[in-house]
Amino acid sequence: VIYQDVDQAATGDVIVGVVVSVDPLLGTGAGGRDSGVHRLASTQRIVYVADGEPGGSQLFVRWMDAEGATSQITRVVESPSGVEWSPDGSRLLMAAGGQSTTDLYVTDTEGMNPRKVTDRSYHMAIDPSWTPDGRGALFIGCPKESFTCWWWEYEVYRIDISTGAEQRLTNDSYADFDPYVSPDGSQIVWLRCVGTFPFGPWS
Predict the structure, then answer these.
(1) Of 25, 61, 24, which is closest to residue 43 (Cα–Cα)?
(2) Can you name the residues that pair with 60 across neighbouring β-strands?
(3) Cβ distance 58 to 50 under 8 Å?
């Protein structure tokens, strides 16, 4: 199991542990805050977000062997987040942007040759995840017709990676997060804050 361990100083290391006992076997030891850790199923690699050069959040890859080599694969100004391997392991999907606008990008496995997938002018596109066929993605965003983008406006969207066509999947007054598609593509699951964000309760 791979998870993020956050201490009281609000820093976090990515930890790989045994499923039963969750004993830490390998950690990133980055000294800053790591997040968005995802393992490529066909290899012993994980990708995650941590503080890097020349500054801010950057993408890192770690080989999960005895040596545990780590490589920073991006050096960008617009900090990436929510990185995910494509189902076939050939691409990365991530969110990147500033405080007012965040869009989705697809890159190669080295974080190079970015292609902008969304156009969320003055809005957010966060928490991306691939569909099982690699042709689409789910993400969290706000309605484009809304002038603002507050947490209670967060909805689940699906986007076609090739065309950029979006489809809104939820329409509620709750904060929705972290959507994923089931392996057979028939269902989606996501987190919903049914109380005061970020305290919950969550469902």
Answers:
(1) 61
(2) 48, 72
(3) yes
In this predicted structure, what is the pLDDT of residue 136? 97
- Residues forming a β-bridge with 157: 139, 168
**Do residues 140 and 176 make contact, with C-beta atoms less than 8 angstroms apart?**
yes
* Other CB atoms within 10 Å distance of the CB of residue 145: 5
Instruction: Give me 47's structure tokens.
Output: 């990708």
Closest CA relative to residue 44, chosen from 68, 64, 67, 69: 64
Rounded-to-integer distance, Cα 60 and Cα 92, Å: 12
Q: Which residues of the chain have pLDDT under 50?
A: 3, 5-26, 28-34
- Read off the DSSP letter of residue 33: B
pTM of the predicted model over 0.90: no
| Cβ-contact 137, 158 below 8 angstroms | yes
Phi, psi of 199 (to 5 degrees): -80, -25
The whole-number pLDDT of residue 32 equals: 45
- Contact in structure between 5 and 15 (CB atoms under 8 Å): yes
CA atoms of 94 and 90, how far apart (whole Å): 14
d(CA 81, CA 168): 22
Establish whether the linkage from the previous residue to 198 is cis, with ω within 30° of 0: yes
- 3-class state of residue 153 by DSSP: helix
Task: Retrieve residue 159's tokens.
Answer: 């986007």
CB-based contact 123:149 (threshold 8 Å): yes
Tokens of 179: 């959507």
